[in-house]
Amino acid sequence: MRKKFIAGNWKMYTSSITAEMLASSVVKLLGDETRLQVAVCPPFPFLARVASVVKGTAVALGAQNCYPKDEGAFTGEVSPTMLLDVGCQYVILGHSERRQKMAETDAFINEKVHAALKAGLKVILCIGETLDERKANRTEAVLDTQLVGSLAKIAAEQLKNITIAYEPVWAIGTGVNATPQQAQDAHAFVRQRVGGLCGAESAKELIIQYGGSVKPDNAATLLGQADVDGALVGGASLKAEDFLAIVRAGIC
Ligand code: PEP
Q: Coil, strand or helix: which one is 221?
């Protein structure tokens, strides 16, 4: 039985004060709920502060990126071991904003996936097609390329520490979410394709989140789909009440 997993991607929002307040509200509203997994992913500078708020609670901490080396002359970068040191359990990798704005390739993302897992972090790996790719009926081909590239040399037993976030690029931050059927079709394809790459048994247990304009009013139908095991939430994760309404929609 897959446990639903809802994660909040705070992107480049909040300040030290508002990050702490937001994390405190999420902790308070979530209470000791354990029927699903919940994580918040603040910007790097606020990780330590949020770590002290969520420590010992039902809320896990994640970062939004990392560099695929333990240490070294990589000015401005942050290593997986540093994230672990500061209290992170998760790291988001391959977000479409990084793929598009920082020109991250599947090969580079694959290096990060290996480095993060080696350090002991769990990975939320984002994949998704653009609107043009969907219109050209290339959704599955694009997802296939991203999965093959970013999961290269990942073994079946490593899959338990990987969550895939299917995030159609056209749905991120636009207010236009995928229909529940579009999400289900893509998730079923991802599960089947990951099964082919890493083994069908481990793919059955794979958590696949949907991301792209998830809001309190559309969460229940999206999360009600058979292969939708959670959500990666951007904008709506910046309001504790909205984020918790999405979390509650995931409790069956
Ligand atoms: C995201 O940033 O991963 C995301 C899904 O954003 P939004 O929920 O705002 O579309």
A: helix
